[in-house]
């Protein structure tokens, strides 16, 4: 009996050590997953901020072009903006999420224009049983696009009234008698969303 107890003690110690190691390893993976999720949230927020900034610029351009520029309908198609403040908007939202933008640029990989943003967290994964994680920062990227929501028939003359169908919501614009109050909210004309 005593010899049996003596033989099982090392096995218990060995199994306890394995379980503790597995627990610490799982904790390290959980830390890494948490950092990765935080990074992805920051990237999504930064990309959306850039696209929303460009949408605001589209609205400003549209407001200034109606009744003045014969090609004002191009603005409704999501054309003409320069994205002058998009990078700053992405930087600001990334900073609010404790991250830094390390890559930024226009995205043309789909049907709609947008921005691709890559970020790196300002925080690290943290100390763990896996060597090197204490200095490891998470990275992530995201793409947000600006999708025009309105369909319309191009009028025969630039001064004719344009009837828009914005996802079922009718909007009439008369270039000859245009008032800023005639335009709906930007979200009616353009949706901003993450690219799938």
What does it look like?
The chain is an alpha+beta fold. It has one domain (2-194). The chain has helices at 2-65, 73-76, 86-96, 186-189, and strands spanning 99-107, 114-124, 137-148, 150-152, 162-166, 169-173, 190-194. The chain has a four-stranded antiparallel beta sheet with strand order 1-2-3-7. A three-stranded antiparallel beta sheet has the order 4-5-6, with no helix packed on it. The longest helix is centred in the first third of the chain and has 64 residues, at 2-65. It is elongated.
**Overall outline:** elongated
Strand order of the largest sheet: 1-2-3-7
Integer tally of domains: 1
Terminus-to-terminus distance: 65 Å
Largest sheet: 4 strands, antiparallel
**Mean pLDDT metric:** 81
Structural class: alpha+beta
Number of strands: 7
């Amino acid at each position: 009996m005593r010899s049996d107890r003596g033989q099982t003690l090392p096995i218990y110690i060995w199994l306890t050590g394995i379980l503790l190691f597995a627990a610490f390893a799982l904790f390290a993976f959980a830390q890494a997953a948490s950092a990765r999720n935080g990074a992805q949230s920051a990237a999504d927020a930064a990309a959306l901020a850039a696209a929303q900034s460009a949408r605001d610029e589209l609205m400003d351009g549209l407001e200034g072009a109606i009744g003045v520029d014969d090609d004002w309908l191009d603005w409704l198609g999501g054309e003409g903006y320069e994205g002058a403040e998009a990078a700053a908007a992405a930087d600001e939202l990334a900073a609010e999420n404790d991250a830094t933008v390390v890559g930024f640029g226009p995205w043309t990989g789909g049907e709609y224009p947008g921005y691709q943003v890559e970020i790196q967290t300002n925080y690290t994964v943290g100390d763990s049983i896996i060597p090197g994680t204490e200095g490891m920062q998470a990275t992530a990227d995201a793409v947000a696009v600006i999708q025009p929501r309105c369909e319309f028939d191009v009028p025969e003359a630039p001064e004719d009234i344009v009837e828009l169908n914005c996802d079922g919501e009718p909007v009439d614009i008369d270039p000859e008698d245009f008032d800023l109050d005639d335009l709906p909210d930007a979200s009616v004309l353009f949706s901003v969303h993450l690219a799938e």
